[in-house]
């Protein structure tokens, strides 16, 4: 390769002329480890599908100056989220001891790809630095990303070369969607909330949770949001018929309750498991056939994941009280049945490693990840609020709010 071909130009993605080239790079990068199962993503012809629902987003490509061949890409978006909390000193506040959220402008990096034939040339670093320039120009105070703990090349790039720190290690919990419906506990009453009721509940109870998006209303009113569901103990005063809104509920909540929302990733991207042996595929197919013919047995059938499949993502998971985890389990069963009706093969969520309600989320260990890795970097010298200081040095809390727009 001549020196002229080694000159890399980083520019903004142009959907009118770059679509085919970007898809080719994606395919070249989808090479899994030999003899192991690998997960591949089909973006359904929309390379920015995983960031386009954010209020500010950008996709960059890296191309050879001489041939105009695209050899790399990166996506990024910016949002305002909770990075900590403080006690109000405003005398007009009804409850001056109640903590208030401290917000910061946070950038997110995802979808970094470099063609296998052009790696170890500094292209990934160049793409990250250009994206960070855009973050800074748009006022972002921090930048973060999620990567696999065992993806050493990615971890080294961001921690050694780009100045990121290992920050949080949430758990990704994945459950298959069986051929049979799951029973929802008869000890729980489920109520579907309107977007406005859901917003009120989330802002009142979860706005101080780390990574909570200030524009939660945009998330809840998005067409990909399939609903927010509240679970309360059966027999308490709250039912579908007697529901008078989140305001009255929060004034007098039951001893235990739980909530979660469902996001439709199926219309954004599809996944596919590759590298499975013929024996594994046959076994999986057999479990589905038996489950479909004999649904009353409620066998844990393996869904069709060896072809492109869709998933629903559960977010905003939270609750209070001694029975909250069991109520979360009821909500997850309901979400499973929604996914089955929607033709999805998987239901997934991501929670803090120490999340107390984690025990209520059913999942298959083989499909899940005990410790995902989030890395963070401080972009500016100024902070949004002195009571938080440098967020990158803060200890993890019990919960995080995972934005479904970045799944």
TrEMBL record:
Residues 8-183 form the N-acetyltransferase domain. The keyword Acyltransferase applies. It comes from the Eukaryota. CDD domains: NAT_SF. InterPro entries: Acyl_CoA_acyltransferase, GNAT_dom, Plant_NAT. The keyword Transferase applies. GO terms for molecular function: acyltransferase activity, transferring groups other than amino-acyl groups. Keywords: Acyltransferase, Transferase. It holds the Pfam family Acetyltransf_1. Belongs to the acetyltransferase family. This is Probable N-acetyltransferase HLS1. It comes from Durio zibethinus.
